[in-house]
């Protein structure tokens, strides 16, 4: 049964993003699968069927984001999933800072840029759900993972962005949360035990919270995790 709501999922042409899109589609949302490659997002959307569509969106390019906004229009749910892991096996003292810069450009500024494009409409309309896909590698309670320093710092920054967006949208009907789905079997972590489908359900849970749900929290399903 359709909910009448529309969700935008970035980085949705494969892996975790595609699994999130599938989970939301199964819950009755219209889903826009966004990614840089037109053919892959359109194919992924076609595989989901009616109520799913693909859209070209490069989170690092303001022109691309604004063009997507003009094409899609307002959305009810935004899942900032697009991300990269470029510095695995590095360490904070020797990592190539160009890789760190490129990681931050996608993971942090990309999510921020897309949020700036789509969240104001949610505030105006008085309802919205924003989910930022984070990681335990960027959690102070776990200890930041030094084996991928740029990636870890990017996730810490995303947690900070989550709290700021939640504070800015407090009492507007918009809920903003980060989700730590745990190690998930994707191209980034091909040997992880959790499937993209399992992790996708955890993210979909945060994207479909009830009106009295939490905001500004670090979630995994019904668990509220320490930052």
Describe the structure.
- The chain is globular, with a radius of gyration of 16 Å.
- An eight-stranded mixed beta sheet has the order 3-2-1-4-5-6-7-8, with helices on both faces.
- Helix 1 packs across helix 6 (196-207).
- It starts with 5 loop residues before the first strand and ends with a strand.
- The longest helix is centred in the middle third of the chain and has 29 residues, at 97-125.
- The protein is α/β, with parallel strands linked by helices.
- The chain is built from six helices and eight strands.
- It has one domain: Rossmann fold.
- This is Ketoreductase domain-containing protein.
- One of its GO terms (molecular function) is oxidoreductase activity.
- Residues 5-184 form the Ketoreductase domain.
- Belongs to the short-chain dehydrogenases/reductases (SDR) family.
Q: What's the arrangement of secondary structure elements?
A:
Layout: E1 6-10, H1 15-26, E2 30-35, H2 38-48, E3 52-56, H3 62-72, E4 77-80, H4 97-125, E5 128-133, H5 149-168, E6 174-179, H6 196-207, E7 218-220, E8 223-225
Parallel strand pairs: 1-2, 1-4, 2-3, 4-5, 5-6, 6-7
Antiparallel strand pairs: 7-8
